[in-house]
Design a protein that fits this description.
single chain; mainly alpha; two-stranded antiparallel ribbon; metal ion binding
Length: 357
């Protein structure tokens, strides 16, 4: 509701969020230790219902869930949230398998290497399925709808197009609100707990850039997910160390080493697929927008010269105004693209380099 309120405030007015929205939200956020802004956890993990409420599934099944609320009212937005949800649901099995592998190794005596090999092989299969689910984005979400109709609703308090700050009426009534209101970023599936938890179990390397990315996004996760992820990140890489010791003793063709490397490669392949999605949904549309706006800027300069009486017929003013607005909007996104691609490719390459050789 706060997100909706902020983004329906006319651009000429300050964003002043009323006490009736802010105080309850801040109170609940403090209680849950959660950012008081919309996060991936809000629009994905806690934004679904069962299609058939009488279904007796102990665990909700992918085909019996639906997204509940959207900001844009488009089926694309609902579909986008469903992709994330289905990945989290399916991915839980991989987390379970990796948890079991860790337990088996930690137990110490008589480690059943074959069993660990089986767990890792099954994990690879699940990660492959995650990639398949991620790619269903192409069927469910139209890139131009994502870019032009969904993304603007999700922009956070740190990225207002008109540079306005969000003013929270009544914030002084809630303990810790000052500290909570520092967590202002826009939501992104980068806040998903699933992928970094898989990374942590598999011992995927973290360089400074990845570490700082994770430290930035983890404060937007549900508190218990974040604690779980942190505890894994801080413990030694149990599975990887075990596989390394076997590789040293028995060579890299040993089934458990092969199975581990396949799981790591599956994570790399998942990141390759994610890069395809980022290209389709962010890079191409932002370039298109920049191109349109270049044309808009050209048209509006023609317009100005026309207004000053230097040339012939007038062009419609409306088109250039829209294009100018799009030019302002496109500039920051286009500027961010090279850095974004560098970061994501870096994470992808680091994943591949984690293989035990
Ligand atoms: C339309 C769909 C999607 C788009 C446009 C998209 C875009 C992005 C962008 C721009 C980033 C860069 C950093 C950031 O701003 O957070 C990112 C990172 C990330 N996204 Fe997505 N994403 C999409 C779907 C998903 C889904 C469904 C998942 C899985 C649940 C996911 C998982 C991640 C992860 C884990 C990162 C962190 C980087 C990494 O670990 O490799 N994304 N995404």
């Amino acid at each position: 509701m706060v997100q909706f309120y902020a983004h329906t405030t006319p651009p000429t007015e300050p964003i002043t969020l009323p006490r009736s929205l802010t105080v309850p939200l801040l109170d609940v956020s403090r209680e849950l230790n959660h950012a008081p802004f919309i996060t991936y956890s809000d629009h994905d993990l806690h934004n679904w219902s069962l299609k058939d409420p009488n279904g007796q599934d102990a665990v909700p099944m992918s085909d019996n869930i639906q997204s509940q609320l959207t900001l844009s009212g488009t089926s694309d937005e609902a579909g986008m949230y469903l992709v994330g949800l289905r990945m989290e649901l399916r991915g839980a099995e991989a987390l379970k398998l990796l948890g079991l592998s860790t337990k088996e190794i930690e137990a110490g005596n008589n480690i059943d290497v074959d069993r660990i090999t089986t767990y890792l092989t099954q994990t690879t299969k699940v990660i492959g399925e995650l990639k398949g689910i991620l790619m269903t984005t192409k069927e469910l979400v139209r890139p131009e709808i994502f870019f032009n109709c969904i993304r603007p609703w999700l922009v956070g308090a740190d990225a207002d197009k008109w540079g306005r700050k969000w003013v929270w009426e009544g914030k002084e009534e809630v303990e810790n609100s000052k500290q909570m209101l520092t967590k202002v970023s826009s939501p992104t599936a980068g806040q998903s707990p699933l992928i970094p938890t898989l990374d942590a179990y598999l011992g995927i390397e973290e360089d400074d850039s990845k570490r700082s990315f994770l430290d930035r996004v983890r404060v937007y996760m549900d508190h218990q997910h974040e604690e779980y992820l942190q505890s894994l990140r801080l413990t030694k890489k149990i599975i990887k160390s075990f596989v390394q010791s076997i590789a040293k003793e028995r060579g890299t063709n040993t089934p458990v080493v092969v199975a581990y490397n396949a799981a790591v490669q599956a994570m790399k392949s998942l990141r390759d697929a994610h890069l395809v999605i980022v290209t389709l949904y962010i890079i191409i549309p932002s370039r298109k927008m920049a191109k349109t706006s270049e044309m808009g800027a050209k048209l509006s300069s023609v317009d100005t010269s026309l207004a000053s009486g230097k040339t012939g017929d007038s062009l419609p003013e409306e088109g250039s105004a829209v294009n100018n607005e799009r030019a302002e909007e496109a500039a920051p996104i286009v500027d961010q693209v090279p850095e974004l691609v560098k970061i994501l490719k870096g994470f992808r390459d680091q994943t591949g380099q984690t293989c035990v050789e």
